[in-house]
Design a protein that fits this description.
This protein is mainly alpha-helical. Helices cover 69% and strands 5% of the residues.
Length: 220
């Protein structure tokens, strides 16, 4: 599985990801290799792929925990923060629920419960579009805007702290390599991979949010 994930990356790029994430790993293949060394290097490359994927998963898991705690200080979750940002960018025109779903790369039905919860929490509200009375758009409430402003005021500083171990050139290299990996995972067969889109982190966030609300309702 791990070999498939990294098969479109060159040897240098595979090594680059691990170097940035795992503090300068040794070279994968010697500059001059004998047949035996080539065989060994293939096995090493397979091991490297497993280690790289494992490192990425560990980093993602830890980042998710840190960010959840961070957003919780403002009464938000990562998905609620993303929704508030998307609606804010839509400005006074607001955005429809279908537009929101598209930007989150989710189905409209999967975010309907989330939108209702956020309306009940007085973070957003829905009204008819001024340009098209047939449409209903989502707008930030005053409370939603205040909370978002508070988060954004210290968001960049928080993100900088998370990447503090990296030099600027390492950040650029890491961003480039991860972007290529994300593109590869999304377009593994030359077209958008629906299986990948269906398992995005935001899907988990939406599911977790819904289950959390249902638990609260049951407890009440």
């Amino acid at each position: 599985m791990e070999e498939k994930i990294t098969q479109d990356l060159s040897l240098e790029e595979v090594k680059g990801i691990q170097d940035v994430l795992v503090n300068n790993a040794p070279s994968i293949v010697p500059a001059i290799a004998t047949p035996d060394q080539i065989t060994d290097s293939v096995e090493t490359c397979s091991d490297q792929a497993s280690e790289i994927v494992s490192s990425i998963l560990k980093a993602a898991h830890r980042l998710r925990g840190i960010l959840n705690s961070y957003y919780a200080e403002f009464g938000l979750t990562d998905i609620r923060f993303a929704v508030l940002q998307i609606i804010k960018k839509a400005d006074i025109n607001g955005c429809t629920q279908s537009e929101l779903a598209e930007q989150l790369q989710q189905s409209e039905s999967s975010i309907s419960t989330l939108v209702d919860r956020m309306r009940n929490s007085d973070l957003i509200y829905r009204l008819r579009s001024k340009s098209d009375r047939r449409k209903r758009v989502l707008i930030l409430s005053d409370q939603g805007r205040i909370i978002l402003d508070k988060v954004e005021a210290c968001h960049d500083e928080c993100m900088d702290k998370l990447l503090k171990p990296f030099q600027e050139d390492q950040k650029i290299e890491l961003a480039t390599l991860l972007e290529k990996l994300v593109k590869h995972l999304t377009f593994r067969n030359g077209q958008p991979d629906e299986d990948v889109k269906a398992t995005l982190e935001l899907s988990d966030s939406i599911k977790t949010e819904t289950e959390s609300e249902e638990t609260k309702s049951s407890a009440a």
